[in-house]
Amino acid sequence: MANISDYVATQTVRAEEKISRYRPGGFHPVALGNTFKEGRYTVVHKLGYGGFSTVWVAYDDVLRQWVALKIMTAEMTVTSREIRFYDALGECRPGCLSSHYIAQLLDKFTTDGPNGNHLCLVFELLGPNVRSIVKSEYKDRTNIDPITILRMTEQVLKALAFVHQCGFAHGDISTKNMAFTAKHLEKVPEEKLFEVIGAPSIENVERVDGQPLADGIPSYLVNSATWGGWVNEYDEDFRLLDFGESFVQGREPEIITQPGGLMPPETVLTEEFDYRVDLWRVGIAIYSFVFGGLPFYCIGDKDNLVIQMIEFLGDLPKEWKPNFDSLRIDFKRQPLLEGDLRVDRGLEHKFRHHIHEEILQPLLPVIQGLMRFRPSDRISAQHALEMLRTV
User: Fold this and answer.
1) In the chain, helix, strand, coil percent, each to 5?
2) How far apart are CA 37 and CA 122, in angstroms?
3) Using CA atoms, how far apart are residues 84 and 87, in angstroms rounded to an integer?
4) Phi, psi torsion values for 30, nearest 5 degrees
5) Residue 330 has pLDDT above 60, yes or no
6) How confident is the model at residue 345 (pLDDT cuts 50, 70, 90)?
7) Cα-based angle 252, 96, 224 (whole degrees, multiple of 5)
8) Rounded to an integer, what distance in angstroms lies between the CA atom of residue 119 and that of residue 69?
9) Which member of 40, 235, 303, 360 has the greatest number of CB atoms within 10 A?
10) Whole-angstrom Cα distance, residue 388 to residue 54?
């Protein structure tokens, strides 16, 4: 197996997908100019990567437009939840999923390579993920305009309501798995595309000992698109994407993806969860649209995460308090006594003192309804959508 210490530690090797994932069962090595499906798709740039895939900008010679080509690791080709999700949704609601603000799957096929047989999913080309847009907007102190925030909120709730109505859960709701469409780029010449996403740049992969690269390891890595010229979220629609952690309601997996401050409280304090983890996490996403960051942070100390939740939302359900005390003991801390926490309804405080646009005030009860401790107390995505429509 490849080890990153075996390779010259260039900036790209450190920043992009792990070299160690290029192994039998792992990533498929891709070079710019590679073609797929008998020459139909030609790769021109890299959009990004995840734990189980790399994603590329490709030109579709049949549709005559730019698309996103997602190449799964060989080990995920048979077990991919994402393709099962799309196949099932196609049966549930035939037609164009983009009308429900779900990333549109255009094609699927497999390709053989030195690391195995890889499932390839072709999606409509999308812009940068919402997390990067939110981070950029708030870093520049420009913020996202209120109308766009409301539109994003409405469309993500429509997408989630559709997923839940079809009997699924997304399983990994976050602003990283949301993006805007890029309809204005689908048919542009290559040079115009690169003006927006950045021209591709590469760095060679070299072994420290100077030996030849093993089969299945790319000769160079491509830096992910920077999207430095992106300014079009105001004119594009929203998409919910990356259904690799999706599951059928009632058939929950043993574990779900749990990035830091996104953990729903039931996954910390109980041994059960269901599709309603999506509701908590879409509430966090809407909060991020408004404030530009997360309401909670967690670097492993889950008891501190729960304390932040209490200070933000109010008291824990009584039946969860013994579990919280046990968690405190696990982290070698004393159980909290009555009055130890200042429960100041942090969400209401933030809206009252930091959000001056009247048009955004209706989002307070929506976030409050979605981010309730007990899953059974949370409002549905459809209910949240109806709350927006009544204002």
Assistant:
1) 40, 20, 45
2) 11
3) 5
4) -125, 140
5) no
6) low
7) 75
8) 10
9) 303
10) 37
The answer to whether 364 and 287 are in contact (CB under 8 A) is no
Contact 245, 81 (CB under 8 A): yes
The CATH architecture to which 1-126+181-244 belongs is 2-Layer Sandwich (3.30)
The answer to whether the CB of 209 falls within 8 A of the CB of 123 is no
Q: Distance of CA 64 to CAs 42, 280, 369, Å? A: 11, 40, 45
Query: Cβ–Cβ contacts within 10 Å for residue 28, how many?
Result: 25
What angle, rounded to 10 degrees, do the helices at 363-370 and 277-291 form?
150
Strands (E), the chain: 35-36, 41-49, 53-60, 65-72, 105-113, 116-124, 126-129, 168-169, 178-181, 202-204, 220-222, 238-240, 247-248
**In the structure encoding, which two tokens stand for residue 259, read together?**
């990035």
- What percent of the chain lies above the pLDDT cut of 70? 92
Contact residues for 151 (Cβ-Cβ < 8 A; gap 6+):
238
Sign of the CA dihedral running 171, 128, 200, 35: positive
Report d(CA 370, CA 274) in Å as an integer: 14
**Domain ranges across the chain:** 1-126+181-244
Which residue reads 């559709």 in tokens?
162
